[in-house]
Amino acid sequence: MIAIIGGGKMGEALLAGLLATGYEPNQVLVTEPDSERAAELRERYQVAAVPLAESARRAATLVLAIKPQDMVELLDELSGDLGSDTLVISIAAGITTSLLEKHLSGEVAVVRAMPNTPALVSRGMTAVSGGAHTGEAQLDHAESLLRAVGDVVRVPERHMDTVTAISGSGPAYFYFIAETMIEAGVAMGMTRDAAKKLVTQTISGAAAMLGDAAAHPVVLREAVTSPGGTTAAAVRELERHGVRTAFTDAIEAARERSRQLSEG
Ligand SMILES: NC(=O)C1=CN([C@@H]2O[C@H](COP(=O)(O)OP(=O)(O)OC[C@H]3O[C@@H](n4cnc5c(N)ncnc54)[C@H](O)[C@@H]3O)[C@@H](O)[C@H]2O)C=CC1
Ligand SMILES: O=C(O)[C@@H]1CCC=N1
């Protein structure tokens, strides 16, 4: 039995992914304090929404999908209720395995995972790291659960704040670019629908080309950039406005915020 603690956006994405990849509704529990939201999930997925203590008692794997700021209180509430073999997977930004272990009594197996919202369409990217008491089989199990919503990689935990800044928050950066490009098209007289179609297919096509293991972004960009042409004119403006530095600084700020979240 798997219990998802926190039925928000990411909790629902994981729940939907697990059910779509072969888990039965009676193998998954949800703990969600917002009763309207709990009823919605129950109705949409036919899963039981139960109190935290019941999830802790019945589930072999708990997925903590609550806000980082709520984590310590939840861990303290959970501590003592877990079985000796329970695996705890946290997807909260910034929350370290040592913080999870510190607030759960005994030698609990914990996994820190960082998914992203494309999990909602089974195209998520998740990175995982195991804690001090987490064996290979438990890490494998966590990976296979998370594979229900996309790709999974294992990383050393020292890279998790960077992962959070790149792939965790990353979809927002692409939506930001998409929004800007669509609005530019609208400002130049296109309909919003037509501009959105152009932008969406362009992002998806570019991502498909970049997905080829042999491809490199610089080479792909050079292929678009005709001598004396439109792309060269555009890229010169991006460089003039410091967009490259802005992106690097943005990713550093996200990594720093992820670090801070463990400090409460
Ligand atoms: N939204 C995103 O793109 C990503 C979010 N995350 C992480 O996932 C976690 C959840 O994020 P979202 O789903 O976006 O937030 P959300 O706000 O949509 O969901 C959080 C849910 O937890 C519930 N909750 C609050 N206290 C609870 C408790 N004590 N027990 C059980 N449930 C409780 C809330 O009612 C809410 O439904 C966060 O820690 C975030 O860092 C990780 C990767 C990506
Ligand atoms: O913004 C956040 O804190 C969460 C973690 C990664 C994506 N969303």
Automatic annotation (TrEMBL):
Its EC number is 1.5.1.2. One of its GO terms (biological process) is L-proline biosynthetic process. GO terms for molecular function: pyrroline-5-carboxylate reductase activity. The keyword Transmembrane does not apply. It holds the Pfam family F420_oxidored. GO terms for cellular component: cytoplasm. Keywords: Amino-acid biosynthesis, Cytoplasm, NADP, Oxidoreductase, Proline biosynthesis. Catalyzes the reduction of 1-pyrroline-5-carboxylate (PCA) to L-proline. The gene is proC. Pathway: Amino-acid biosynthesis; L-proline biosynthesis; L-proline from L-glutamate 5-semialdehyde: step 1/1. It is found in: Cytoplasm. This is Pyrroline-5-carboxylate reductase. It catalyses: L-proline + NADP(+) = (S)-1-pyrroline-5-carboxylate + NADPH + 2 H(+); L-proline + NAD(+) = (S)-1-pyrroline-5-carboxylate + NADH + 2 H(+). Residues 157-261 form the Pyrroline-5-carboxylate reductase dimerisation domain. It comes from the Bacteria. SUPFAM superfamilies: 6-phosphogluconate dehydrogenase C-terminal domain-like, NAD(P)-binding Rossmann-fold domains. NADP(+) binds at I5, G6, G7, G8, K9, M10, A65, I66, K67, P68. Residues 2-94 form the Pyrroline-5-carboxylate reductase catalytic N-terminal domain. PROSITE patterns: P5CR (PS00521). Its main location: cytoplasm. Belongs to the pyrroline-5-carboxylate reductase family.
